[in-house]
Amino acid sequence: MKTLPAHKQYSIFVGVMLSGYNLADKLYGAVYIVLMSMRGIDPLQISIVFAVSSLSLAIFDYPSGNLSDLFGRKKLTAIGFFTWGIGLCLFAFASNLMLFIVSAVIMSLGVALISGSPQAWYIDKLDDLGMLDYKNVVLPRLNGFISAFAIVGAFLATVSSNVHLYLPVAIAGIVAIGLGIYAWFRFTDNYGERTEENIFKEVYNTSVDFAKNKLMRFILLKSIFSHAGLLAFLLTWQVYGVNELHMSVSYLGIILVVFMAVMSVSSFFVSYLAKRKVSPVKIITGGTLISALGLLLVGLFPNPVVFVGGLILFEFGLAMESSCFGAWVQDFIPRSKRATFSSGLSALKSLAGFAITLVLGLLTERLGYSFIWYLGAASLLISITVLIYLNAKHVRIGVNQAEAEQPAL
Q1: How far apart are the first and last CA of the chain?
Q2: Given CB 3.0 to 4.6 Å as the disulfide criterion, which of 95, 160, 184, 367 pairs with 167?
C-alpha cells in the first residue's frame, strides 16, 4: 500500500483531532442545559455554571499557549483532550451544583489546553516541509469536514438522548479521552522558543510582546468586532424565532442541522477559491458582507421564511470568513510563539465576549430584538473596515511574516 505524503498525513491527523472535537462538542451541547435542569439545577444556578465556565476558560486559555510552545503542542493537545474527557464524564454523572461547577472548570482547563495547539503544531510541520501556503487550501477544506462531523454529532445526540439523557455527554467524554490517547502516540512534537526559565516571566514577556505587536492589536480588534456579530446571532436567534415569530421549538434542531450543512459547503467553497489564488482579504470581506446582509434581512423583515433565509446567508458568510481568516492570520504570527499568540487572541476575545454578552442582554431588554440584528450587522461591517485598514497600512506596505517576528513599537 502506497504511503501518503507527509503533509497529507499531518492534514488527516489534524482533521481527526478537530472533527472529533466538534463531534464531542455537539454531543455535549445538545443536552447539557436540559441535563442540568433534570438534575434539579434551577436557571440561576445554570447561569452560575455558565459564568464560572467562561471565566475559568479565559483564565486558563491565556497562559496555555505559553505552556504549549514550551512543553510541546501535540503533548498539550493530548493532555487537553484527556482532561476535557474527564470533565465531560464527570458532568454526565453530576448530581448537584458543586459537581457541575467542578466539571465545568475541568472542561475549561481541557479546552484551553487544546485551544490553538493542534493548529500551531500543524502549521509548523508544513513550514518544516516548505509547504506553508498549503494551509490556505487545506484548512478551509478541513473546516468543511469538521462541520459535517457536527451534523453527525447532532444526530447521534438525538438518538442517544432517547436512551438516556446523560448518554450523549458520556459518549463525548469517551471520544475526547480516545482522541487524547491517539494524539499522544501519533507523530513527533514541535515547540516554540523559551526566553525565560521562570514560566511567569515567560508569560509576562510574551504578553508585552503581544501588546507591542501592532499587527496583533489590529487582528484582535477585527476579531472582537466579528465575534460581537456572532454573539448577537447566538444570543438572539432561538428566542427570536420562538417568541417573536412563533416557530415551533422542534424546528430549531432541523434549522441547526441546516446551518451546519451550509457551513460545510461554504468551507469547501473557500478551499476552491484558495486553490484559484483568490486573495484571502477578498474572501474574508465577501463572507463578512454576506453575513451582515443576512442579519439585516432578519431585522428588517420579521417573517419565518426571511428569518431562515437570512440566517442561512449569515452562516454561509460566517464560514467563509472564519475558515479563511484562521488560515490567513497565521502568516503574521511569529513561529516561535505561534501557540502563545493564538491562545492570547482567543483568551482576549473571550474576555471581550463576556462584556459584549452583558451589553447585548441589556440592549435586548430595552430596545428589542430588531436592534440587536442591526447592531450585529454594524459590528460585522466595522470589522471589514478594520481588516481593510490592517491590510492597507500594515500588510501591503511590507510588514511580512519575517517582520512580524519582532514587536512593532
Answers
A1: 53
A2: 160
How much is the pLDDT for 297? 94
∠ CA(54), CA(384), CA(64), 5° rounding?
A: 30
List, for residues 8-38, the tens digit of each pLDDT value. 888 888 888 888 888 888 888 777 777 887 8
HSE (side-chain half, CA atoms, 13 Å) at 60: 23
Where residue 368 falls (left for φ over 0; alpha for ψ -120 to 50; beta otherwise) is: left
Q: Which domains does the chain have, with CATH numbers?
A: 1-188 (1.20.1250.20), 200-409 (1.20.1250.20)
Provide the Cα torsion 136, 139, 145, 148; round to 10°: -100
Rounded to the nearest 5 percent, the helix, strand and coil shares of the chain are 85, 0, 15
| C-alpha grid cell, residue 342 | 493564538
Q: Which amino acid is at 52?
A: V
State the pLDDT at residue 22: 86
- 151, 23 contact by CB (below 8 A): no
Question: What's the pLDDT tens digit per position in 72-127?
Answer: 888 888 999 999 999 999 999 998 989 999 999 999 999 988 876 787 788 888 88
Cα separations in angstroms, 211 against 206, 300, 341: 9, 40, 10
Q: DSSP string of 238-288?
A: HHIIIIIS---HHHHHHHHHHHHHHHHHHHHHHHHHHHTT--HHHHHHHHH
pTM of the predicted model, to two decimals? 0.71
Least confident residue range of 22-31, 261-270, 331-340: 331-340
CA distance 66 to 409: 22
